[in-house]
Amino acid sequence: MFFASDNWAGAHSDIAKSLVDAAGGFASAYGTGDLDKRVEKTFSEIFERDVAVFFVGTGTAANSLALASFNRPGGQVFCHREAHVNVDECNAPEFFATGSKLVPIDGPAGKIAPDALSAAIGRFPPDFVHGGQPMAVTITQATEAGTAYSLDEISALAEVVKKAGLPLHMDGARFANALVHLGTTPAEMTWKRGIDILSFGGTKNGCWCAEALVLFDRSKAQQMHFLRKRSAQLFSKSRFIAAQFDAYFRDNLWLSLARHSNGMAARLASGFAKSDKARLAWPTGSNELFVIIRNDAMKALQDKGAVFYDWPAGPDVKATMHEDETLIRLVTSFATTEADVDTFLSAL
Amino acid sequence: MFFASDNWAGAHSDIAKSLVDAAGGFASAYGTGDLDKRVEKTFSEIFERDVAVFFVGTGTAANSLALASFNRPGGQVFCHREAHVNVDECNAPEFFATGSKLVPIDGPAGKIAPDALSAAIGRFPPDFVHGGQPMAVTITQATEAGTAYSLDEISALAEVVKKAGLPLHMDGARFANALVHLGTTPAEMTWKRGIDILSFGGTKNGCWCAEALVLFDRSKAQQMHFLRKRSAQLFSKSRFIAAQFDAYFRDNLWLSLARHSNGMAARLASGFAKSDKARLAWPTGSNELFVIIRNDAMKALQDKGAVFYDWPAGPDVKATMHEDETLIRLVTSFATTEADVDTFLSAL
Amino acid sequence: MFFASDNWAGAHSDIAKSLVDAAGGFASAYGTGDLDKRVEKTFSEIFERDVAVFFVGTGTAANSLALASFNRPGGQVFCHREAHVNVDECNAPEFFATGSKLVPIDGPAGKIAPDALSAAIGRFPPDFVHGGQPMAVTITQATEAGTAYSLDEISALAEVVKKAGLPLHMDGARFANALVHLGTTPAEMTWKRGIDILSFGGTKNGCWCAEALVLFDRSKAQQMHFLRKRSAQLFSKSRFIAAQFDAYFRDNLWLSLARHSNGMAARLASGFAKSDKARLAWPTGSNELFVIIRNDAMKALQDKGAVFYDWPAGPDVKATMHEDETLIRLVTSFATTEADVDTFLSAL
Amino acid sequence: MFFASDNWAGAHSDIAKSLVDAAGGFASAYGTGDLDKRVEKTFSEIFERDVAVFFVGTGTAANSLALASFNRPGGQVFCHREAHVNVDECNAPEFFATGSKLVPIDGPAGKIAPDALSAAIGRFPPDFVHGGQPMAVTITQATEAGTAYSLDEISALAEVVKKAGLPLHMDGARFANALVHLGTTPAEMTWKRGIDILSFGGTKNGCWCAEALVLFDRSKAQQMHFLRKRSAQLFSKSRFIAAQFDAYFRDNLWLSLARHSNGMAARLASGFAKSDKARLAWPTGSNELFVIIRNDAMKALQDKGAVFYDWPAGPDVKATMHEDETLIRLVTSFATTEADVDTFLSAL
Predict the structure, then answer these.
(1) Mean pLDDT within D19-37
(2) Are D234 and A129 an interchain contact pair (Cβ–Cβ within 8 Å)?
(3) Per-residue pLDDT tens for A102-121?
(4) Distance from B260 to chain A by nearest Cα, in Å?
(5) Phi and psi for C66 in degrees, rounded to 5?
């Protein structure tokens, strides 16, 4: 009953096997080999556009490099207060984009509202040198609250962003989960709605270690080669990432895995709907559930071996909670089984 | 006939298989799982000392984090002019240790001489604020010239370093190759001879992607956790690196692989010794050969499909070369076969 | 009727004259001359302690260097949301302390409350590498809201800070104004109450360009020499700053000037107390007044040549304002005359 | 007999007086006042071109900001090995342009030769990501060796620089001294010969603290506002710098002062020409003399109170020196008198 995080799972067997298959033979290094090039082409097909792709080792690297590519002196990056870049990356974004700052914006269920974004940007009038200057906006899809922005919500944010002349980044650590939740296409969820650059995550959805920066604006690609190398993210045997993505995309494995983990989350949600000891804090749009649970029930679950994290509740959620309740997070993965879920629910 | 680099090889089958074996089941993330801890213990056994180990994704990351852990304002890092940190890492060391500088030192066959090091450090008298302050010394073992420092040479450098009150880093991208060449122990080649921190490379010797920072001075370990995370080198499914090292150390696979690639280099060297078209620029101490070759012979080899790089010759080597000769580098790997070598030599 | 800022004034005649007096003769450069050393001693006398003093060119430099001297990877600096370091220094603090982050804390009248500070620090449990680690706390005295922390308020904050094992910085851009308002001593307002490092400002109080970093913890002094030089803040003819401070401290000129500007602010405040068109947003503790004023009255003042800035109102103040009112800031200086104030008040 | 450095002098009386004159009255801060604007215009007149001017506090700041404005990931800046940026600024250039590197080039008498520059740049082929990428070239005029590049020498370097698509910076800490030595115009010595950005120094030539960045390429001006503020170099009472430059340019004071100090250096040189105890290491082109002197004569001078520094000799100079000789540097200034020189020479 491991619901702590989707990164507690290992790798899907197809991914692991792909690494075995690619292990033999010689290939030119640092991303210039045939397999790397072939997989990069697959990205362009999937996104219905000629994109630039950069493999990196972690989601933090992808996010930080994306923001660093837009760096300006006194640069302000607008993000949700609970964004992974803001609270879970040990200042890597500030380090990669030296001298930049993250400006946190509040919003319920992990989402930034267009008005709030507009107001935040508005605090930096052009040429007010003391305050610095706006530099980029980043959103997470699916969000850190397990929700997913609708396509129209993305468009509405992009409109504010473009009006301010800024680039828009998407942290897609759980890109596939949001995608299958919305039932849309990768192109539609990104560049067609105004995304300029994407952190495309494979690790949380069944890979060992496979993350990619996808640049819809190829003019940033030349410098990204140097940014990536300078940040020690250019792998010599880069094909070990390519091989994972190769299997990931083959026969739409990635979508199947995301559908599975979303389904396990939905199965959990159905169970909670029938319980009087716990309820969802808000509806999920991915493989993450945030649940308000009675402390005794939580304790009982943990005693029976269930693993999950409690989570800090924002003021809006806190207002709906009783004193003897806790907010917890449950994450399912490609490796979660129906039996895992059902054991958990009966333990509840 | 691929002799371009040892990173053109893939992964040894045992390494790849280990990734398959570790793919199932759940484990706590970010390096806290059982496999990670077990492999860390193996490091302590191998180095005969209680070491702190940090898995990272690239040798550049290991080197840059090592130096960053010693960062001081105006800090000067002393290295060989042709050191990987100086010429092949796109300023990652300067980026990780913001505001620091690499001070290049010349020396034949890729080695720094104690006198030269002493003189270089001496240019920074204490409290001369304008020049900055010494911060660290880094050497590469095996060197970028394919040679290996003898144990006494390491001791002699360490003596200069300690006298200056500085820490000493070893870039061990080809650690195993130097180790088996010297026929010594990991402890003897490092902390027993004055090394404070080591970049321990597995990738060039048969892993997919397995590098480790080894801290003999554990007092730096606490901040290294933050340094690593901040540089986006903390892998969520960290066990994918641990699994590689697990196979790497099992039954001394790593030493066997290094012996093999060194042997292939020796076989090449023997071949060159019999040729009148090419000669070694200097004796090798690992799996890298630097060869002065007649241009027509080089061309003929390339036409027959041999892959290798030409290399900039230092002034001392240049003085021994004719106009119709070129300096080339040949690198063997765990995947190089006797047949590869013999085909190459007969093509010569 | 210039009330825009105290940095719109020039320099007090004694300060300017001191620069003339010091202009002749030769003196060793970079802060090693006799005048520099003598003025540094004066600092120690004034603070009743053997302090380390570093002259720098701007308050932003002093603040940023202070925080940089405590830098740690993933470091979090706690400050008031409206702190100068957070909103008026174009990310200089983040730039100087590469990879660090300012964590803004809300609080009425420009002050941080101990509970709020404690809660903010508490979000960074030791060894939770993802969030980074606490690094320093900074407060401003007088605050950006023109108020002054009482001595007990400083002690209460320092207690929280010390319990967390952190250093405490004071931004004293208007140090003298707060000092004479509280009627206390420099020692009492700083190290006796737990301040570790102080940005001591002279510029806003009658100097041309005279700021000093005062280190109560001399163990940081050695590296500060390098930090200052590396940030291009070590002046060759450093005595031009020393000469200003020399005049500044002579016969307690600095206290007289601060008393004067505070007095002018009080005179303004008295005037507002009698007006039905305007009222203080909160009581002042220095030479800055924040005033809620009727828009028509504001317009009339501006038409008559009064110069001042409007200011963003926090939620607590906004709640007390009518729609036809604006929050404005008025700053007096050593150069403000009673006539200036009286003209302004009668214009009102 | 103070010949240690031109920054041991104080300020010319006209400069000091100008500060007194400007001390009264109110003016808008941060470089937006009338005096600032007027002096900026004077710069455009002097340079016969509409330039962007940024006042800063130190030459190190000017140099570091200039290079930072061209920053690129993995950026390589080419400079003379003995350049002030390389050996006397405590890594400020590397700090301001985070992650960049200075590539030192050797050359006699403080000058870079076009061939050597071309070769140095040539080591960074486009798209070889490992080595990084060329970013800028910087030369010093007058050089750190007291020589001055001729106009044709500047043109020849600029040709190499432009061919490589790079910007060219001039460190003009002793700009006026080189200018009067060459007998040319500011325009001719800079943008007409290919300089893109200039550190224009006033401090060493009679100001207290007056340095300016002059941008011939105005497209860099917008970001420079933020770069300057972020580096804590935007002075609130910026007119204290403007006032110095105001006096500096009035009636060509700056040229008179430079002519005087150059003249004093020439007078010293004449004296050495008649001595058998000392000789010039190379001809001077400014107010700096490098002299090879017999140790006993050096000692005798010091005993009689002469103040100067000895200097590290390069290999070419060393080859011409005897064992009992030392290389020393003598610097004259606006404040050096004929009597100072004559006393020194008779002491010799």
Answers:
(1) 94
(2) yes
(3) 999 999 999 999 999 999 99
(4) 17
(5) -55, -50
State how far the Cα of D106 lies from the Cα of D83, in Å rounded to an integer.
Answer: 10
* B95–D101 C-beta distance less than 8 A: no
Q: For domain B12-252, which CATH number applies: 3.40.640.10, 3.40.350.10, 3.10.20.30, 3.90.190.20?
A: 3.40.640.10
Class of domain A258-347 (CATH, top level)? alpha beta
The pLDDT tens digits for B296-319 are: 999 999 999 999 999 988 888 999
HEC string for chain C: CECCCHHHECCCHHHHHHHHHHCCCECCCCCCCHHHHHHHHHHHHHCCCCCEEEEECCHHHHHHHHHHCCCCCCEEEEEECCCHHHHCCCCHHHHHCCCCEEEEECCHHHCCCHHHHHHHHHCCCCCCHHHCEEEEEEEECCCCCCCCCCHHHHHHHHHHHHHCCCCEEEEECCHHHHHHHHCCCHHHHCHHHCCCEEEEECHHHCCCCCEEEEECCHHHHHHHHHHHHHCCCCCCCCHHHHHHHHHHHHHHHHHHHHHHHHHHHHHHHHHHHCCCCEEECCCCCCCEEEEEEEHHHHHHHHHCCCECEECCCCHHHHCCCCCCEEEEEEECCCCCCHHHHHHHHHHC
Cβ within 8 Å, pair C229-B129:
yes
Chain mean position to CA B124: 28
> What is the rounded average pLDDT of the residues B81-103?
97
pTM > 0.90: yes or no? yes
For residue C134, the distance in angstroms to the closest alpha carbon of chain D comes to 23
pLDDT for residue D191: 98
Cβ count within 10 A of residue D219: 8
Which top CATH class is B255-347? alpha beta
Superfamily classification of domain C256-347: Aspartate Aminotransferase, domain 1 (3.90.1150.10)
Of C30, C132, C230, the CB nearest to B226: C132
Considering chain A, tell me which residue range(s) the CATH 3.40.640.10 domain(s) occupy: 12-252
CATH architecture assigned to C10-252: 3-Layer(aba) Sandwich (3.40)
Per-residue pLDDT tens digits for D317-347: 999 999 999 999 999 999 999 999 999 999 9
Residue ranges of chain B whose CB lies within 8 Å of a chain D CB: 73-75, 87-92, 94-95, 98-102, 123, 129-132, 312
Which tokens go with D141?
């005029």
- The alpha-carbon gap from D68 to the nearest alpha carbon of chain B, in Å, equals 12
- Whether residue B29 and residue A209 make contact (CB cut-off 8 A), yes or no, is no
Q: Which CATH architecture has domain D253-347?
A: Alpha-Beta Complex (3.90)
Instruction: Express each pLDDT in C261-290 by its tens digit.
Output: 999 999 999 999 999 999 999 999 999 999
